[in-house]
Amino acid sequence: MSTLEDKILGEKTHYYCSSSSEDENDSEDFDKEVDKEEDKYIRSDASSYSNAPSYSEWDGSSSNTGPKGVLKDWQRFKQIETEKQAILAKERIELIKKLSLSCRTDLDEEKEKLEETDPELADLLTDEFLITYQKQRMKEMLAKAEKLRFGQLINLETADQFVEAIDNEDKSVTIIIHIYEDKVIGCKTMNGCLTALAEDYPFVKFCKISGSVAGLSKHFKQKGVPALLVYKQGQIIGNFVQLTEQLGSDFYASDVESFLIENGMLADRSCVPSIISGKKQESC
Q1: Where is the stretch described as Disordered (predicted)?
Q2: Widest CA span in the chain
Q3: Per residue in 239-252, pLDDT tens?
Q4: Residue 85 and residue 91: Cα distance in Å, rounded?
Q5: Which of 49, 125, 128, 237 places its Cα 20 to 30 Å from the Cα of 184?
Q6: How far apart are CA 164 and CA 209, in angstroms?
Q7: Average per-residue pLDDT in the chain?
């Protein structure tokens, strides 16, 4: 209720606050201020957490100053470095693959084409099959070569034998025929040299025939011998007459061999494999 004083002063009752109400209002204001301060603190704390450095990247600084924090930061740093090195190594490998040249032979391409067109034939042409086929072919070639082995100086007694020795022989065989006369110097020596060479070159056919049997002229029998005629595939490829002028009257098998090699009539034995020459290599 309003008092007499209130009526005289004209004060309104709703503007009047007792001391107890003032205390209550003060406490409420204080609580509001506290709440505001707490909200500010929470917001600042949240912003500090949001601005905290991420562990996914290393910026070179550490927010942890304790021993455990330092160790943790160091471990994370090493982990990031290892990941970077792994990525760089992977990129290098990819770059090397791009820059590397892929070499393929014609044989590889033919095998792929054969696998597409004829798979059964491709299965047959394996390494084992090729090795077996190679061995079989080597046996056949060696068997054929064995038939063409001579190893001695063949004496031709007639002119027909002379013709047959050339025409009926295998085309791969080199035929060396010595035309001689017993009374001419150097002919006997040449026969001895060819006998030795026939053993060293078993796949070359060495023959001898008298000039009189071959039906040569008297002048040739006196001035043209000793003479060597070389044939292959039925054709004459070498014609060497009066060899004493080049070799002298006294010569050896090595001299005749060198002469024939220099003129391309014989293959150098040092360049021929032992499996072809038929001579076993001496063990050192």
Answers
A1: 15-67
A2: 188
A3: 999 999 999 888 99
A4: 10
A5: 237
A6: 13
A7: 76
